[in-house]
Specification:
Helix content is 39%, strand content 16%. By secondary structure, it is an alpha/beta fold.
Length: 414
């Protein structure tokens, strides 16, 4: 509740009223979907089951709105509520659309013949039968998709890359969102895949937690296994600042941030806060540059690229870590510094979409972020951006078609 209220700059009381209106709209859609469901001509028991599952969903939503506390432990139930709501709601869109088309036909027939025709059972069968596809897909995403980690390779051509770094491998993970994890063995699958990779350096591009530092505490021993010969480097994402929490005081928020910085140290990760680090090999070097979150509203803009580049030779190749991919088009492309590769995350690929290599790559998040997953190259400057699809998940406790990602960037001399 507070997350949405903070983003929209309105009171919790007003937000609760807005959610009530939304709930009534959902109920109206459910009533309409039920009329189409009745056209299946099933027994009364099936109709009762329909409403039992939906009423449970409404009660869970009401609970989340009335009692949500981002600093408390009740947040563990929120992803379950979101998942349950999506599981029940999204598949209904198919029979609703087909039912609407049929009702428009029935209205037309009413004007022509003067009689109302009844809803046809075969239309309802097609609609509810097709609804089984997203229903099964969402179930798979919740129970299996969120741990269906994959390793992707990205070859990056860099002009004037020192010979010593030709073939240098950087592994990237992003958006851990440790506050969402519930299953140790699921997460361990991803960690073991990281440990199996033969790489030179590792970078993490933000959003270690959902809201507060303590969400990472149970996972420190597992994640601190991550290491590489030339180090592990990390930055902050928009969720790491605790901006979506209603703190009792500014002091409490600052203390949370200090504890988060300490968490990065416990992990053995070098946190770059508008800072840089030089990686040297046989007397030659490349720069790892990390900015704090740089986003467009409602996301915070704490990043300062010029500060992060301070003291560096602008001609030396630089790998920039910047959580939000919006930063690339806004500042990086036209910056005078030699930044051939920017690594980002943030979008999660919306945790929902369709990707078939060489054929289709689509997610609704593309309407907010044109560069939302994978590699993008600016033809004029030849600077490239890579957007990692994320290691964890947020809100919806699963992934449908957009799987959690571990990326290996292979630097090569152009």
């Amino acid at each position: 509740m507070i997350i949405f209220a903070d983003h929209l700059k309105c009171s919790e009381k007003k937000m609760k009223f807005i959610f009530l209106i939304i709930l009534l709209i959902f109920f109206a859609f459910d009533l309409y979907a039920f009329q189409i469901f009745k056209a299946l001509k099933l027994s009364k028991a099936f109709e009762n089951v329909y409403w039992i599952f939906n009423i449970i969903g409404y009660l869970l939503i009401i609970y989340s709105v009335m009692f949500y506390d981002p600093q408390g432990h009740k947040t563990k139930i929120l992803p379950f509520i979101i998942g349950y709501t999506i599981l029940l709601g999204v598949p209904k869109l198919i029979p609703i659309l087909l039912g609407t088309a049929e009702d428009l036909f029935r209205i037309g027939n009413r004007f022509i013949s003067g009689e109302w025709s009844s809803r046809r059972r075969f239309i309802a069968l097609i609609g509810w039968g097709a609804a089984a596809v997203p229903f099964i897909g969402i179930l798979h995403g919740i129970f299996l998709g969120r741990s269906q980690y994959r390793v992707l390779n990205n070859s990056v051509a860099i002009k004037n890359l020192p010979d010593e770094f030709n073939g240098f491998k950087i592994l990237q993970i992003s958006d851990i969102h440790s506050g969402s994890f519930v299953n140790f063995k699921e997460v361990e699958i991803g960690i073991n895949m990281i440990l199996d990779q033969d790489v030179d350096a590792i970078v993490f591009t933000g959003d270690l937690v959902n809201n507060v530092y303590s969400e990472m505490t149970p996972w420190i021993d597992l994640f601190k296994k991550i290491n590489a010969p030339y180090g592990v480097f990390s930055i902050l994402g928009n969720h790491d600042y605790g901006d979506y929490v209603k703190w009792d005081s500014a002091e409490d928020k600052n203390k949370n941030m200090e504890n988060l910085f300490e968490t990065h140290k416990k992990l053995g990760w070098k946190l770059l806060r508008n800072e840089n680090f030089k990686i040297s090999k046989n007397g030659r070097s490349i720069d790892i540059v990390g900015v704090e979150n740089w986003g467009n509203p409602p996301f915070p803009k704490y990043g300062n690229l010029d500060m992060a580049l301070k003291g560096l030779d602008l001609k030396t190749p630089k790998i920039l870590l910047s959580h939000d991919p919006s930063h690339f088009d806004a500042e990086v492309i036209n910056h005078e510094s030699n930044i051939p590769l920017t690594l980002s995350g943030h979008t999660h690929g919306m945790q929902f979409g369709i990707e078939i290599p060489g054929w289709i790559k689509w997610s609704p998040v593309k309407f907010k972020y044109p560069k939302w997953a994978g590699s993008y190259i600016d033809e004029e400057t030849k600077k490239s951006l890579y957007v990692n699809r994320g290691f964890g998940y947020l809100a919806f406790p699963g992934r449908v078609g957009i799987w959690p990602e571990i990326t290996i960037h292979n630097l090569r001399k152009s």
